[in-house]
Amino acid sequence: MTAQASPHVVLYDLGISTADLIAAMSKAQMRVTVIEPDPSDADRVRDVLGRRVPGGRFTVSTQMVEGCDLFLCHASDAQMAPATALIAVLDGPQALATVPDPARSIAMDVLDPRFAEVAFGDASPDARIMATGFLEHLQARYATTTRTHDFGGHQLQDAAISLLDRLLLVGITPWELDEALEDAGFAQGVLKAQDHIGLDVAFARRRASGTDLLVADRMVHEGRLGRSVGVGWYRYPGGGGAVIDPLMEDMIIEEARFAGIDPIPMTEAAAADAVIAGVINASAGLLQDGLTLEGLDLLALYKLGLPDLTARARQMGETNLRDRLAKLEDVDATLWQPSPLLGLIFDD
Length: 348
Description:
Layout: E1 8-12, H1 19-27, E2 31-35, H2 39-52, E3 58-61, E4 70-73, E5 86-89, E6 105-109, E7 115-119, H3 125-138, E8 141-144, H4 152-169, H5 174-183, H6 190-197, H7 199-209, H8 214-221, H9 246-259, H10 268-288, H11 293-304, H12 309-316, H13 318-327, H14 329-332
Parallel strand pairs: 1-2, 1-4, 2-3, 4-5, 5-6, 7-8
Antiparallel strand pairs: 6-7
Helix pairs in contact: 4-10, 4-11, 5-10
């Protein structure tokens, strides 16, 4: 395999979660083929992508095509890749243990095409060149990781959703929480951003890890998958912008009552502060895996929309941060329990 000026990329059975990536590849003049084996899924994906990526250079098909350079898929579908294609699995580094041809397989999180996290595993030098050539052609910033389990970006996203899910149950509404996060410096409310990605993406990771969330899981079970279907944490009437959905508030109150979770008085600003403290706490373990502080800042920025993560932590100070986490034990002692690796963020 050799890097090409304009590779042909095939996305296999990935649904609409790759809409932003398809738009970026189209802009970069790449040939893009979206394979959806089920005809009804192909029709739905074609319709959604037509609205999300108007004028995009892509084809949606139910049949495999020839001449593929890069085959993006879940690890369970890696055997469907053409014989000479570079295989990029989206599941995470742990999935490389299951692919049929490790020498031409990498793990790559590139759903947000501005920044990619890449694990090469046992990929050959040619495969590595092809992967970096694709990312450079895409004009994406990227970082390589030596992690053998999940992507660091996924870990941060999943930690944030767990924190938010719990805060909703003690009395903050989704739109209040998102607005407070934006006021605190997030580029976009985390829940609104999850609607854009699709709630089923993180749900699949939770299923694989055995993690349950009361509100977010129920939403997926009820078909509230996000913007692509017109309803998630918000409603999107006519495919337009997000609007508040009062039914969400009723659902959250009901789930809290079923679980015996009492409301806790908390301002919206305090809730946003709790999210930031919890994300900083959850991020500490990534530094043990060799990620630099600069890399951690990039992950937080591109995967959560939160700038200057480590600067925020250092401004708080380790003692103050630990005090904040301790005060959040009433919300959930497990989620906000100080990490034993928290000090790594403050090491010079």
